[in-house]
């Protein structure tokens, strides 16, 4: 059970990128990747972060780890404000907060042995101490000690991802960003790695930010879920509440796209039409209004704030008309329902 004390606090964080047409362009366009996002991650919990490609999930993760500078706002990780920290504080932050990437092959140096990769963050230990810790970490993630002398190309995808996890754990972090850590693995290997991550969280008291397109995976591992759309959080709740009683139309559409085996659990497909607005010129009003089946005039005139629901203060949504699907909406009988395939996936 997660404690109330937040390990990570994101306060009104934004990140913009300037896009120049050429080297001497004096008026570059500005792409909005993350726009005034606020959230917190409690110690010992796993916060799932979901949304379509290009919604800003990975950019937000890199802002939290100070791999990208903030354009505005404030982020505090384990008591360190990432944007104003001194060099010594940032080195300590690098130890306490680690990231595991989607592609384990491209994130591992092919010239290094597994022992060198896993022990890369232990320069202060003697060779014998480093080897002992590397062997212990490899065994902890389910790899035999004789893997230490192998190279990444000699391992399978699942084994390489276990090496990435072992490398992150050797420096004894408190916080792990897991950026699509199982999306490149087959279903059976996904289950093994997810179970490993769950066990490691229990054993080491880790805090996770788990980024994924696969809603079934997020449901399996996350305590809470935040839904991003075009750089903003549009809904956030406990995993049970978000999957059972979603409020935002975008969340309804995402969940309806997840395949279900049992007939009783199947949802009517909530289709959404059109494409997201351009992040170079996002609208000042609700960014989902051009695709939303509940959109009204107010949605095209104002931007809805992220506010808690009346029934649960921990269940927040950014919508003027939140709530469960009406029977007409569930059957697709709405005034604006152009057919569109949602670029999200899920496994039953």
Query: Over the alpha carbons, how many angstroms does the gyration radius reach?
Result: 21 Å
Overall pLDDT metric: 87
Q: The biggest beta sheet, please?
A: 8 strands, mixed
The proportion of strand residues reads 15-25%
In the CATH hierarchy, the architecture of the largest domain is 3-Layer(aba) Sandwich
* Low-confidence parts: 335-348
Number of helices: 10
Please name the CATH topology of the largest domain: Rossmann fold
Provide the domain count: 2
**Name of the top-level CATH class of the largest domain:** Alpha Beta
Biggest sheet strand order reads 6-7-8-3-9-10-12-11
Query: What structural class do helix, strand and pairing data support?
Result: alpha/beta
Kindly, what is the distance between the CA atoms of the first and last residues, rounded to a whole number of angstroms? Answer: 26 Å
Helical amount: 25-40%
Order of helices and strands: EEEHEEHEHHHEHEHEEHHEEH
Quick one: overall form?
A: globular
> CATH superfamily membership of the largest domain, which one?
P-loop containing nucleotide triphosphate hydrolases
Number of DSSP-assigned strands: 12
């Amino acid at each position: 059970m997660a404690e109330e004390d937040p390990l990570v606090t994101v306060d009104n964080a934004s990140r913009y990128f300037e896009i120049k047409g050429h080297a001497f362009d004096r008026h570059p366009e500005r792409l909005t990747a993350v726009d005034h996002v606020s959230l917190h991650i409690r110690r010992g919990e796993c916060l799932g972060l979901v949304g379509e490609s290009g919604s800003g999930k990975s950019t937000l993760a890199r802002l939290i780890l100070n791999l990208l500078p903030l354009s505005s706002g404030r982020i505090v990780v384990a008591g360190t404000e990432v944007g104003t920290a001194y060099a010594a504080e940032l080195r300590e932050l690098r130890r306490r907060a680690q990231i595991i990437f989607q592609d384990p092959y491209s994130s591992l140096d092919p010239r290094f042995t597994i022992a060198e990769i896993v022990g890369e963050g232990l320069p202060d230990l003697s060779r014998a101490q480093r080897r002992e810790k590397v062997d212990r970490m490899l065994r902890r993630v389910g790899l035999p000690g004789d893997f230490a002398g192998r190279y990444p190309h000699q391992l399978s995808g699942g084994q390489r991802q276990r090496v990435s996890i072992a490398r992150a754990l050797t420096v004894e972090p408190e916080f792990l960003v897991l950026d699509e850590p199982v999306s490149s693995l087959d279903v059976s290997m996904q289950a093994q790695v997810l179970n490993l991550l769950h066990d490691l969280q229990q054993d080491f008291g880790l805090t996770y930010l788990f980024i994924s397109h696969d809603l079934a995976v997020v449901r399996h591992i996350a305590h809470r879920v935040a839904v991003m759309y075009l750089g903003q959080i549009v809904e956030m709740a406990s995993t049970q509440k978000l999957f059972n009683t979603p409020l935002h139309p975008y969340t309804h559409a995402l969940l309806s796209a997840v395949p279900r085996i049992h007939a009783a659990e199947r949802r009517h497909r909530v289709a959404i039409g059109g494409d997201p607005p351009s992040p170079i010129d996002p609208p000042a009003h609700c960014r989902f209004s051009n695709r939303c089946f509940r959109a009204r005039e107010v949605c095209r005139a104002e931007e809805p704030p992220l506010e808690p629901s009346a029934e649960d203060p921990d269940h927040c949504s950014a919508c003027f008309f939140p709530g469960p699907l009406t029977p007409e909406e569930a059957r697709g009988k709405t005034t604006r329902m152009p057919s569109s395939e949602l670029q999200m996936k899920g496994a039953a």
